[in-house]
Structures are given as C-alpha cells and as structure tokens.
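WARN  no MSA supplied for this record, continuing single-sequence
INFO  ligand: zinc ion
INFO  echoing inputs
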Amino acid sequence: MSEVNSDDVRQQHRYESLTWPEINEAVAQEKVIVLPVGSIEQHGHHLPLDVDSKLVGSVCDAAGARAPDLMLVMPTMSYGYCNHVMDFPGTITIQPVTFVNVLLDIARSVAYHGFKRIVIVNGHGSNYPLVEQAGRQTNLQTDALCCTLSWWQLVADYWNSEVRESGPGGCAHACELETSMYLAIDPAGVRRDRIRGALPRYVTDIPDGESWQWTDLTLGTGPASIIGWTSGYSDTGSFGAPELATAEKGDRVFAHAVDRLVSLARWLRGRPVEPRQDLHATPPTFPLPFGF
Ligand SMILES: [Zn+2]
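INFO  complex generated
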C-alpha cells in the first residue's frame, strides 16, 4: 500500500510542506513549480523593506491555494539585486552572478527531481534581466521549460485601463500600484501619514527627460536607460503617485493577478517542449564549450 495519499498531495500547494515521497507523487501529477523572487529593499518613507517579496509571495501563494492540483509554490527567494540602492539603509543586495546562479541552482534542482514546468515570478524590477537569464539557462541546461515574468505584467492592461489614476511614471517604485497592493495585503504595514511620492529628478530636472528617460512598471520605460545610484535622483526613495493608492484598487489588481497566474500555469503545463535539432551538415567535433 502506498504511504502517500494522492488526494492530500493534490490539495497541497506549498512545496516545502511535502515529504520526499509526496514530491514523487507531485511529479507524477505534473504540477507546475512556481518560484516567487523578491528583494529586501527600501520603499520610501511609507512602506517596509519587504514590499517586493511580500507582494510577489502573496500573489503566488493565493494562486497556488486556488489551484493546488496545478501548482506547487516554493518559498520566496527574498533577496535580490539592489547594488544601486545601497545608499538607503536596510537594503540588501546579492551580486548579479551570485543571484543568477542561486536561481539557476533552484530551477535545476526541481528539474532534476522531475518537475518539467517552472514559472519564476519576479517582484523587483532590477532583478528582471537576471531572472530572465536564469530562465534561459534552465531551458538550455535541463529538459524543463522555464517561464519568467514580473507579476505586474500579469495585470498591466487591466491596471492601466480600468484601475490606475496616475499618469506615466505614477507606478514606478513604492508607487500607486505597490502601495495599493500593500494596503490590500497588509494595511497595518503602510505608514499612511508618511506617503510622499515624486517623479525622479532625471525626469523633472533634466531637459527633455520626459522624452527619453522615464520608468513605469506597467507603461514601460523611455528609450534611454541610465541606471545609476538611486540616491542621485531621489531623496525619499519613492517614485510615482503613492498618494493615489487605495486598498480597493489593491484588492482588484491582486485578484486579477491571481486569476492570470493560474491561467499562465495551466497554459504552461500543456505547452509542449520544442525538441532541439543539430543542423550542422558536418557534425561538431567537440561538445559545446560553455560548461554544460
Ligand atoms: Zn518594489
């Protein structure tokens, strides 16, 4: 008789809560692994350091609870890449190569154990190029499919067209969007009396800044990317319009993000792997020299 109750595993959405025999069952059930990745980073005078980790972890956990037969949510990778923010006390940074390698090791581990569909959901903008790199390497080095995105990509159209009030730049950092989400998830954590946002000085104080260099989580960025010390263009560390944040907006966008993440995981589970081909007429004479 099996020591594992399949239905119990089907109903469990937390990766770390399973035993190793139950992991075997979860692999057989073809669950999609969801890895939330955040940061511990300053978020202005009004939000705690854990914004990026808490928001992404909460969205992923709620999605897993909604569809436990589909998803297995891993503990949040709570630290991220924040070198440029180190002038603000409390921020923790992981060096870029280390960060990619940690994510890659996690993804390779679950792929090795048999999970062949992985979603890495990012919650900190500056992580994203590195998260994407970890996903690419997972796809090249394992037989799993790894999809990466930032959680606000799940809601951008909905947020922009139906919820947000601020103009371009209103949703950048500790902004209308992040503050609304935090108000929905943990209202006691928001220091409402200290909400004070602004556009970064590279937009307001430098000629033509509005044309070239601007940042918004859900509207995109200007064509000129110049990412220097955050303290050079802000005194508060909050960019955007957090004064427009409400818990009601946060509730709506949180629910939308959860719906979309469940849909994404369902799509990813059914998405086939496209097999690799070797198209050399003359076969290569040695293995790819990239260390894998
Ligand atoms: Zn943030």
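The two ends are 40 Å apart (CA to CA).
INFO  checksum written, moving to next record
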